[in-house]
From TrEMBL:
This is UPF0149 family protein. Pfam families: SEC-C, UPF0149. Residues 185-208 are annotated as: Disordered. It comes from the Bacteria. The lineage of its organism: Bacteria, Pseudomonadati, Pseudomonadota, Alphaproteobacteria, Sphingomonadales. Gene3D superfamilies: 3.10.450.50. It comes from Sphingomonas floccifaciens. Coiled coil: none annotated. InterPro entries: SEC_C_motif, YgfB-like, YgfB-like_sf.
């Protein structure tokens, strides 16, 4: 994690300090946010932020200091918007952890986070399979998720071969899915999908119940 900017290291520490049984790792959060950005159906920020807080928090920001809530919500939203910009440029830059001993990229944590985002709108994701152009990247995504969860029907030789190209496969699949989302938006509205942004009068994504402009905005 030391190779990443201090803002990411601070966010990683904040995630680890959340008073929940299994807080997200930064790489899981990154996958989760990416899944939200390219998802076929928008998910309100208040809903997905509650997933980050954890079930134990019951949707309430688990911080005592309001400034901590503000900083955390701002940092997460900023990363969400940064991912959207990177995808629009065709240059996704996922945050991956690495095994400290072997140096191997631990991509499976990232894809676990992505799968959590898919689960929020599973019906909408499944409906994408009806699009011929989306069928292949969706099948490859399903393979990545199955391997990460040790649920794949592939044999060990096939899995090892897939592991060797997993990072390139992951980034390629995500960019294809984003491109498909753009095509779909173009067909409906004549323009590419804009990143989901919280309006000043919208409910604050931190879950406080206040308007964004009177809380974390």
């Amino acid at each position: 994690m030391s190779r990443y900017p201090s803002r990411f290291r601070r966010l990683d520490d904040a995630l680890a300090d959340l008073p929940v049984e299994e807080p997200m790792l930064l790489t899981e959060l990154d996958g989760f946010l990416t899944g939200l950005v390219i998802g076929p159906e928008a998910v309100p920020a208040t809903e997905w932020m509650a997933v980050i807080w954890g079930e134990e928090a019951e949707g309430v920001p688990p911080f005592e200091d309001r400034l901590d809530v503000q900083w955390f919500a701002t940092a997460v939203t900023a990363r969400h918007e940064e991912i959207a910009r990177d995808l629009a440029r065709g240059k996704l830059q996922p945050i991956f952890d690495a095994d400290p001993r072997s140096g191997d990229v631990l991509w499976d944590y990232w894809i676990d986070g992505f799968a959590e985002a898919v689960a929020l709108r599973s019906k909408a994701w499944h409906a994408l399979a009806d699009d011929v152009q989306m069928a292949d990247p969706l099948a490859r995504l399903a393979t990545l998720i199955a391997i990460a969860r040790e649920e794949s029907d592939l044999d060990s030789v096939e899995i090892n071969a897939f592991q060797d190209r997993a990072v390139a496969e992951l980034t390629g699949v995500v960019q294809q899915l984003y491109a498909g989302r753009v095509r779909s938006a173009d067909a409906r509205t004549g323009g590419a999908p804009a990143p989901t942004k919280v309006g000043r009068n919208d409910p604050c994504p931190c879950g406080s119940g206040k308007k964004h402009k009177r809380c974390c905005g």
